[in-house]
Amino acid sequence: MDRIKILYVGEKMKIKEDNQAVSEILGSLLMLVLGAIIFSIVSVILLSPSSVPVPQYVKIECEIIDENITITHQGGDALSLNIEVTFKIDNNDYIFLIDELLENEYKDDGFWNIGDQIIYHAGNLENLPVEIVIVDLDKNFLLFDRALQE
Predict the structure, then answer these.
(1) What is the pLDDT of residues 82-127, one digit of tens each?
(2) Which residues pair with 96 in a beta bridge?
(3) How many of the other CB atoms lie within 10 Å of CB of 116?
(4) Exposed e or buried b for every residue in 36-51, given b needs 16+ CB within 10 A?
(5) Strands 83-89 and 92-97, sheet pairing
(6) What is the pLDDT of residue 3?
(7) In the 3-class helix/strand/coil scheme, how is the chain assigned residue by residue?
(8) What is the pTM for the complete model shown?
(9) What's the pLDDT tens digit per position in 51-71?
């Protein structure tokens, strides 16, 4: 009998169990489980992809010159050609993709870059409200929303 020790104290007999080996095994298992839990938590925090889209920085300038609306990419990130431009003129919406509006010389590289310019011939805009809304369709992100004249 390795695990049970019989002790004689006077005339009384006491039985004492030796649980040292079981205690060490349980302690080792607890340490392994805690280590696995901590490792799992840290790996989930560090390795999980960010679900929040990174906003793009872009500076866009719009102006009305005679009967044309000019939109110029003034700086920031290069944008894909899947950008929607909405011209709201006198409560009418005219919706285009950047790809449809850019001259061929500007879209050869597949991006709307700094210095690239869009010129939209809108006709007579005198005394008409004009608003421009530009949305990145790939990232579902509003890039520009401004009234040029009210």
Answers:
(1) 889 999 988 889 999 988 888 888 778 888 888 888 888 888 888 8
(2) 85
(3) 19
(4) eeeeeeeeeeeeeeee
(5) antiparallel
(6) 61
(7) CCCEEEEEECCEEEEEECCHHHHHHHHHHHHHHHHHHHHHHHHHHHHCCCCCCCCCCEEEEEEEECCEEEEEEEEECCEECCEEEEEEECCEEEEEEHHHHCCCCCCCCCEECCCCEEEEECCCCCCCCEEEEEEECCCCEEEEEEEEEC
(8) 0.62
(9) 666 667 889 999 988 888 999
CA dist 75 → 12, 79, 87, 116, 120 (Å) = 94, 11, 21, 10, 20
